[in-house]
Amino acid sequence: VVPESRRAGIGRALVGAAEEWFRASAVERRRVRVEISNRTALRFWRAVGYVEDPATDVASEPRARILLRRS
């Protein structure tokens, strides 16, 4: 979501629609990769129910990223 449109519920709505599709399609595992330096994105994903996945292997990433999974 572009910066000037943030905090308006657009991201939550998009994630909500995706989550509904995942449930309807019987998708059980959802993961998101976020650059560790992107604090705004980390806060967002945590706020919508994602938590750090212990399988995160940042050493193999060209840029430090964190893997989040749906809690």
Description:
The protein has 71 residues and is α+β, with helices and mostly antiparallel strands. It contains two helices and three strands; from the N terminus they run αβαββ. It has helices at residues 10-24, 39-47; strands at residues 31-35, 50-52, 65-70.
The biggest sheet amounts to: 3 strands, antiparallel
Total beta-strand segments:
3
Number of helices: 2
Q: How much helix is in the residues?
A: 25-40%
With strands numbered from the N-terminus, the spatial order across the biggest sheet is 1-3-2
User: Spans with pLDDT under 50 lasting ≥5 residues?
Assistant: none
Anisotropy-based shape: flat
Mean pLDDT: 85
Order of helices and strands: HEHEE
Q: What descriptive keywords fit this protein?
A:
single chain; alpha+beta; three-stranded antiparallel beta sheet; 71 residues
Strands, helices and their partners?
Blueprint: H1 10-24, E1 31-35, H2 39-47, E2 50-52, E3 65-70
Antiparallel strand pairs: 1-3, 2-3
Précis, in short:
This protein is of the alpha+beta class and 71 residues long. The protein has helices at residues 10-24, 39-47, and strands at residues 31-35, 50-52, 65-70.
